[in-house]
Task: inverse folding
C-alpha cells in the first residue's frame, strides 16, 4: 500500500507561502533569491523547532528581501518527506532517516527515492543514553525483562538497534512509550527501571531523572557491541558521553552517536540562497548559538562534515561556502 503523503498542518495561505519558498517559487529583489523560505523543525519547544526558528531569524535579519519561517512538523521523518516533495526549502533530519529515504527502504519503502536531497550542514552529536536507577543494571544485556520507557516511533526503533548486538529485541523488554517528562516522573516513582533516550548531551529528561537520585547512572555500551552496531546500522558510530554531563556522573561513558539536526535541502534550491544563509549564520553565530545549548555545535569546521556523503551529495552552495573557508575536501 502506498503511504499517505505528509502535509503541514497549517492554513491554506501559509501552505501556499511554503510552496513558493522552494526551487520554483517567486524571487526577491536581492540577487534573485526566493521571496519565501521555509525551515522544517519539530514540535513547538522541541530541539528541532527551536533550531529551525533560530535559522529562520538569521535569514530574516540578514538576507534582504527574503521572508523565512520555521514550520512546526513531526520532526525528521516529516521534514525529509516535505523537502523531498518540494514543500519545504530546508529541513532538519538525521542519517537514520536520510539513508532509507534515499534508498526507498524501511519507513520509505513504498515511496519515491529522495535522490534530490542535498547536504547543507552537519548538526550536533545525538548520543544514545541509557539511564537506570537500579545499581544492578550495569549492561545493556541486563535490560531483558526490565521496565523501559522511551518515546514512540524513531526512538523505539533506535532502542531496537541498540539491543541487536546484545541478542535482544524490543519485545524482550516491558516497554512503555510515553512523553519524556512522564518517563522521568515514572522512573522517580519507581514504576520504570530504565529510560532509553537518543539526543544531545545534558537532556532535560535525564537531568530530571538524575535530580536527587544518588543511584542514577548512565549504562555504558560495550565498545565491541558499539562497533558491531555501527557495522549493521551505519548511521551509528562509537562515541563517549563526557564525564560531568549529569550530576554524579564522574567518568565518561562509552556509547554510540548519530548526527542530529543535519540540515538538508533539494538539489534545485538556489545556490546563492544556501551560500548566503551559511555566510550569515557564520557571521552572526553569537546570535544563533544562544537559541539552544546544542546550537553551539553549528560552527566550522564541524558543520562541514557530511557523514552521509555516500548517499547525500553536498549542495553546490554549501560546497562553495566550505571551499571559500578552506575546508579540506571541498
Result:
Amino acid at each position: 500500500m502506498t503511504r499517505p503523503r505528509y502535509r503541514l498542518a497549517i492554513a491554506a495561505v501559509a501552505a501556499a507561502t511554503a510552496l513558493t519558498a522552494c526551487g520554483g517559487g517567486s524571487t526577491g529583489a536581492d540577487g534573485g533569491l526566493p521571496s519565501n523560505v521555509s525551515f522544517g523543525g519539530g514540535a513547538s519547544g522541541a530541539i528541532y523547532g527551536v533550531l529551525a526558528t533560530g535559522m529562520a531569524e538569521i535569514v530574516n535579519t540578514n538576507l534582504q528581501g527574503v521572508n523565512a519561517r520555521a514550520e512546526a512538523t513531526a520532526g525528521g521523518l516529516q521534514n525529509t518527506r516535505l523537502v523531498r516533495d518540494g514543500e519545504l526549502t530546508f529541513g532538519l533530519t538525521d542519517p537514520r532517516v536520510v539513508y532509507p529515504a534515499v534508498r526507498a527502504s524501511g519507513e520509505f519503502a513504498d515511496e519515491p527515492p529522495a535522490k534530490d536531497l542535498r547536504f547543507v550542514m552537519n548538526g550536533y552529536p545525538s548520543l544514545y543514553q541509557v539511564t537506570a536507577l537500579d545499581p544492578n543494571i550495569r549492561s545493556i544485556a541486563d535490560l531483558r525483562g526490565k521496565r523501559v520507557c522511551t518515546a514512540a516511533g524513531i526512538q523505539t526503533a533506535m532502542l531496537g538497534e541498540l539491543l541487536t548486538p546484545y541478542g535482544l529485541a524490543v519485545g524482550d523488554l516491558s516497554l512503555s512509550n510515553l512523553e519524556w517528562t512522564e518517563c522521568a516522573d515514572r522512573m522517580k516513582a519507581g514504576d520504570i527501571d530504565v529510560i532509553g533516550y537518543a539526543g544531545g548531551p545534558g537532556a532535560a529528561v535525564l537531568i530530571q531523572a538524575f535530580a536527587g537520585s544518588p543511584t542514577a547512572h548512565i549504562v555504558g555500551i560495550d565498545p565491541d557491541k558499539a562497533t558491531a552496531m555501527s557495522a549493521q546500522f551505519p548511521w551509528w558510530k562509537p562515541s563517549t558521553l563526557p564525564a560531568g554531563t549529569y550530576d554524579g556522573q564522574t567518568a565518561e561513558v562509552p556509547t554510540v552517536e548519530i548526527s542530529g539536526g543535519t540540515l538538508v535541502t533539494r538539489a534545485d534550491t538556489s545556490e546563492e540562497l544556501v551560500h548566503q544563509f551559511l555566510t550569515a549564520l557564520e557571521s552572526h553565530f553569537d546570535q544563533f548559538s544562544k537559541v539552544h545549548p546544542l546550537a553551539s555545535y553549528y560552527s566550522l569546521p564541524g558543520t562541514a562534515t557530511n557523514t552521509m556523503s555516500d548517499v547525500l551529495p553536498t549542495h553546490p552552495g554549501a560546497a562553495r561556502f566550505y571551499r571559500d573557508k578552506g575546508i579540506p575536501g571541498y
